[in-house]
Amino acid sequence: MSETLRERRPRKRDAQATRARILAAAVEHFARGSYEKVSLRDISSEAGVDVALISRYFGGKEGLFTEALKASIHADRLETWDRRTLPGELAQSMAGGRHESEDAHQSFQFLLRAATSPSTAPLLNLAVQERYLAPIADWLGGKDAQPRARVLAAVVIGFLVERLIRGEALEGRDREVFLAQAERLFAALVEDAR
Predict the structure, then answer these.
(1) CA distances to 11, 34, 132, 147, 159 from 153, in Å
(2) Per-residue model confidence as pLDDT tens digits over 37-52
(3) How far is 85 from 33, CA to CA, in rounded Å?
(4) Could you tell me if 31 and 109 are in contact, meaning their C-beta atoms sit under 8 angstroms apart?
(5) pLDDT-derived band of residue 33, with 50, 70 and 90 as boundaries?
(6) Candidates 1.10.10.60, 2.40.160.20, 1.10.1740.10, 3.40.50.410; correct CATH number of 3-71?
(7) pTM for the full model?
C-alpha cells in the first residue's frame, strides 16, 4: 500500500479510550476549579478531543460531571471487604499519609469541591447514594443497614479528611494508639446490630 493511501485512511477510533481520557480530564479540572468556572473547552483540550465529543458521549457538562463523580467513587472496592479484616485494613489505611496516589488525592479533592457547591451537591448526593451508600448497606446487611451505612461512610469520610489535613503517615506511639482506637471504632460499625 502506498504511503499516500495510508495517510488518507482515517485513524482507528477507540471510543472507550477517548471516553476515559475525557473523564480523566474532567476529574482533573473539576478538582482544581468549581463547576461553574470549568469549561468544556478546557476539558476537551486536555483530553485532546473536539468539544462536540463531550456532548456526544455525555450529553453536556452536567452529564460529564455526573459521570466523573461516579468514576471518582470506587464502589468496586467493596467486593474485597471482609468483616474480619476490614476494621484493621481501614485503620491501617487511615494511619497512612495524605493518599497513596495522586489520582486518589485528585478524586477526593473533586468530591470535596462537589460537596461544597450548591449547584453540584445534589448531583454528588445522587452519585454517593447509588455508588457508595447503597452498596455499603447491602454489604452490611441486617437491621437498619441504611442508617448504619451512613454512619460508616461519615466516619470513613471524616478519617479521609483528617488524613488529608495531616498529610503524613503517623509513626511510633501515635500510630499505635490511632490504630487501636480506629480499629475498635470500625469493628463496632460493621457489627450486625440485630
Answers:
(1) 45, 24, 8, 10, 10
(2) 999 999 999 999 999 9
(3) 37
(4) yes
(5) confident
(6) 1.10.10.60
(7) 0.74
